[in-house]
Inverse folding.
């Protein structure tokens, strides 16, 4: 099972391993960015329907975390999970086909944007109930621990989940039972239109998680290298039997919560300030400064990724719909029905 | 789902009618306040409360954290202390997180206390499918809630009811759950300038007919009326009854229409097994079995978590064509 | 509610039969484990798991904190990772706190993922009234759960089924909710030494009769059989059908008995409106309307949160006398 | 509206106000102790049915907290609430009649032991869902705050409630909205058969409550004077607009969780150790040492309280049952039906 699908863009011959690595991170982030930007266009063109939540601006979190995981590790995600899926290696074709509701989609078109699944990659899906995926992650980690499997389960969730009781039940269970689970909190400062300080009595989320007695710390979620580094530290600790860890990944969503959001609750200036910390620009600038990346290479990379997105769209357009007579399949396991 | 600021209009949308109903309640009764996720700054996830924050302020248009059990229970407690809360739950699926409070507290406190208190609370939520929101945002559980003694359940299907049911529900001393079907918000229709409160206890005949009764409510009403039009074309006169109140059910209206037409189809967006349509069918059997010329039929949702793909979602839901076929079977 | 340590016996209690079923499962399949509040040290709130901790240890007989949503969801996750969890919820009322996990996850994950996974999970819980536990501990919601596609719902009413249904449920690749009526735990009856797994898909005729069918399940079965005895005294032969599986329903068994007797009474401890009895009645109308000589009747619980006082609780519940009266009406 | 029903036992003429006060506290605790001991006998005699949870050993919590409240304050309690009800002034006759399921009971016999209500005394009832009463308390406090009423809502709950999500949602709401609510946690070290350390990853409950940014501290729950004092401090602070407070009242239940509990999960020695700190003995001993109470007075007090319990039992025995035809009353408000 391979977590990466397409081959990595060939770096200049003299590139160091570190440089190669950064190039891969940049490339992974670009794949997410261009994929999601295209999805927004496709939504306006009514090719994609339902709710669409993009994570533009938060790509460093998805890429940094996934890079630090092994194939055997499990992931539980949210409804804002295109980036998590792509970074985990779910083929872009199957993700785009899912957005189209086609049978070639990673959930056969039954899930859509909020419910991407790929069990072969232990990607246990997008979950559209805030905090609803956390108990699943606790159970996955519990089973792996009972079976002495050296695996870590990562659960993504947003700052909004902190107000849900389910989150607290899960923190306690994970810490009480010392489960191999990484709580990956994407703190983008808003839950829909509700700013963190209007939703949480105590806004220091890492501190609150620490009150369950687990290792917990904040991370610059706009710096992919920092995210990867922090995740490696956490995952090593967890795999070593150290119990659960909590990472508060401080990030920001550049776009609206969903396609229906007129963004009345925050001002453009704030968004602009954060855009200056665009995780893609930060990394590419640094790589150019370090002479690891030329403008030409960057353009070529962009063109290559754009081509991948184009192919995914073409494939999705051409793909079949599931036959109507299959409507009631997958409610129960067929051998049993 | 964009919207314009409300003005009382001759052709308001369902959304605007609901908003106007809330505005009226907030103006008339200072015990009334609205509480829920993103009802304020954001303007409501379906923009129903847009503009109310500006008019009534953050105390009475209260944004809550994501704590369904906490703020629904808080609504119950505030009602006990004399307020008249309107609690908004974004989508019926999330109400499952508050079900303990609704069933174990709101519905039982009056009885457990031997009648010492009552819970004058209104809980509004969006229900139903049809917008490709898939399996965790498309349930139609209003009929399921109608199983619970101690609460009342209403489902405004028209602009008049969207405008008029809320105030009446707020006058009710007991908890009322008000379900707004997501596909109705953008529908619009004529509304009298002086439109106001309406009763919430009785069903309403939305179309008179003598050949067969179609009993439905909420998001399925328009589909039933469309089917009735089609059938009128082939000379079948359908009477369409809008239940409006799912708990209590208006037995009199149900038996009246069945006694008139002797044939009945119940249309309900809930999953077929154990849906409200079963209760309606069972009551017809109990109350007018010998008036029936044919078995009562049901047109419900397929028993499948709602799929995302449009063609599958459409196939899973009651549609005018399926209603037409069912009616043709019972009149055959 | 005291109990003695289990020995396989010719006259086990329902409690002992359930315990033996769990012990067998834990011995046969090392993927099986039991998780819930006080299942270990305490021995189970109804002493069903008494002694299992000593035999299987705290990893497999896992006491949980009071976190219904958390540990039920954990059971789902563990099932996804290849385990075969048995999750015990002390009482059906508390399952409302876990309903989000049951409905939004357990019942939908397979479908939402396009069939990539399944959830081999068994959730056991105590249900029903009759012990004066009042309005927050006496619900009978198994029929309500039977509305949900993606899960199966079973209700063992006999010692054989208490002994045999669990293993079969654990072999099922999909989530199964198993409801144990609280009044059954102390009942006992003969059980073959070699008693083992039983099917969980089919209903069972518990008493043959030609005059009228009484369809019921779980805690009401004994009441139905008692009523049948009484009626036999006055020459009315009642056939008693135990549904056993509430979802899916055994349509064939239901129509068979009704076609034989042409008259039917459904007995269900759920609140009447929207109870499973409504679904059974509606299906009979749909599937054998013209075989009926009388309208289907229902004997259910009064629509009231369960009162504490014994005389009121007894009056609120289906009782043999009320079943007898209903049968006399339909055979009249 | 009077919170105390019977008159206070007349203290010796030279008794100081402080001595009088302690005598009242002792008397209130004795009323609870003797009432509950009698309930246990009546349960064995099948006069009382359903679940019966007594708080023998925890009387100092009920009495100390209630003493510090005003008539306008509100109380939300649990299924282990006989003591809370009696200390709040709910007449013993009406509580005992409720245990009997009689129409003269404080809930007309519909609630029983777990559902005692007395709205005139703002006693919003016993709640049998662990943590289920907390959201109600948040709402009561919210309403009082919106109405600028100078009231405090006290919510009782046990250590077990800490694991429930509802508890955490309520802590956040109360602290975020600065509501006038007192979280009265009765930490008796067990949730049924589950010891605190096997249920909570972090067993310092006061510390965890503090993570919501509210004033929070532990109190010796076996010392009624300490409980009363701590509650006064908390209530003054809350009434003064200081926002919610949390008290961890460290106590212990001397008897089984309920009448069905064989107590396999703790050893007798532990129970005995705690019995040495019996709140009634501690107070009476101290009063005798301070010459505020003679053995004769104490005996007389016991006889007086026993007589009150006897009268309550007689009244309950003699009381009527609610007529069967009223079965479906109180489901909906009658004017509306
Ligand atoms: C239980 C529940 N309540 C409400 C919603 C509606 N909703 C969807 S996303 C969202 C905001 C969540 O914010 P956060 O957890 O911070 O994640 P983000 O969207 O910022 O990534 C809300 C309120 C939901 N999906 N589930
Ligand atoms: C939500 C819920 N889960 C489980 C139960 C069953 N139950 C009743 S009391 C109890 C223990 C509660 O312990 P704690 O909160 O410490 O209160 P205590 O009994 O010690 O006073 C349990 C598990 C319940 N009533 N409600
Ligand atoms: Mg956020
Ligand atoms: Mg305790």
């Amino acid at each position: 099972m391979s977590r990466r699908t397409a081959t990595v863009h060939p770096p200049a011959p003299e590139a160091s391993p570190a440089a190669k690595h950064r190039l891969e991170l940049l490339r992974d982030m670009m794949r997410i960015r261009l994929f999601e930007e295209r999805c927004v266009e496709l939504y306006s063109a009514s090719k994609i329907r339902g709710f669409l939540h993009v994570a533009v601006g938060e790509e460093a979190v998805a890429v940094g975390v996934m890079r630090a995981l092994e194939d055997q590790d499990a992931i539980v995600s949210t409804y804002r999970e295109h980036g998590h899926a792509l970074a985990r290696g779910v083929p872009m074709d199957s993700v785009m086909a899912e957005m189209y509701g086609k049978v070639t989609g990673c959930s056969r078109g039954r899930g859509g944007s909020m419910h991407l699944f790929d069990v072969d990659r232990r990607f246990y899906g997008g979950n559209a109930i805030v905090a609803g995926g956390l108990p699943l992650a606790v159970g996955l980690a519990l089973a792996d621990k009972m079976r002495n499997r050296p695996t870590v389960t990562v659960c993504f969730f947003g700052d909004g989940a902190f107000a849900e009781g389910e989150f607290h039940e899960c923190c306690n269970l994970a810490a009480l039972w010392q489960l191999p689970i990484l709580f990956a909190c994407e703190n983008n400062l808003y839950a829909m239109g509700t700013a963190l300080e209007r939703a949480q009595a105590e806004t220091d989320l890492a501190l609150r998680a620490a009150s369950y007695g687990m290792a917990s710390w904040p991370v610059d979620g706009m710096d992919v290298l920092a995210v990867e580094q922090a995740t490696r530290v956490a995952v090593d600790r967890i795999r070593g039997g150290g119990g659960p860890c909590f990472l508060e990944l401080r990030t920001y969503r550049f776009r609206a919560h969903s396609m229906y959001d007129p963004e009345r609750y925050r001002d453009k200036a704030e968004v602009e300030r954060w855009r200056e910390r665009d995780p893609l620009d930060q990394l590419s600038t640094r790589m150019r400064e370090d002479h690891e990346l030329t403008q030409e290479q960057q353009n070529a990379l962009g063109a290559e990724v754009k081509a991948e997105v184009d192919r995914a769209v073409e494939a999705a357009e051409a793909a079949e719909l599931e036959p109507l007579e299959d409507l009631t399949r997958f409610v129960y396991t067929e051998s049993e029905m | 789902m964009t919207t314009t600021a409300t003005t009382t209009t001759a052709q308001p949308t369902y959304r605007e009618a609901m908003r106007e109903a809330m505005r009226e309640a907030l103006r008339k009764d200072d015990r009334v306040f609205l509480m829920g996720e993103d009802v304020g700054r954001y303007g409501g996830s379906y923009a129903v409360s847009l503009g109310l924050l500006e008019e009534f302020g953050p105390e009475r248009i209260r944004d809550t954290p994501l704590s369904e059990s906490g703020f629904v229970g808080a609504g119950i407690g505030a009602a006990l202390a004399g307020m008249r809360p309107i609690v908004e739950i974004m989508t019926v699926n999330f109400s499952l997180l508050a079900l303990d409070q609704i069933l174990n507290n709101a519905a039982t406190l009056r009885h457990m206390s031997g009648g010492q208190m009552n819970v004058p609370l209104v809980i509004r939520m969006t229900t139903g499918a049809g917008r490709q929101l898939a399996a965790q945002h498309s349930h139609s559980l209003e009929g399921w809630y109608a199983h619970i003694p101690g609460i009342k359940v209403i489902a405004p299907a028209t602009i008049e009811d969207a405008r008029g049911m809320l105030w009446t529900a707020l006058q009710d001393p007991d908890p009322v759950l008000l379900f707004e079907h997501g596909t109705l918000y953008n529908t619009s229709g004529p509304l009298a300038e002086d439109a106001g409160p309406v009763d919430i206890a009785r069903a309403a005949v939305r179309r008179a007919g003598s050949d067969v009764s179609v009993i439905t409510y909420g998001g399925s009403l328009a589909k039933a009326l469309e089917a009735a039009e089609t059938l009128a074309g082939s000379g079948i006169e359908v009477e369409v009854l809008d239940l409006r109140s799912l708990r209590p059910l208006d037995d009199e209206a149900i038996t009246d229409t069945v006694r008139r037409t002797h044939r009945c189809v119940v249309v309900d967006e809930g999953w077929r097994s154990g849906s409200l349509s079963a209760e309606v069918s069972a009551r017809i059997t109990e109350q007018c079995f010998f008036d029936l010329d044919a078995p009562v039929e049901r047109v419900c949702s397929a028993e499948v978590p709602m799929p995302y793909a449009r063609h599958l979602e459409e196939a899973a839901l009651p549609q005018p064509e399926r209603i037409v076929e069912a009616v043709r079977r019972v009149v055959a």
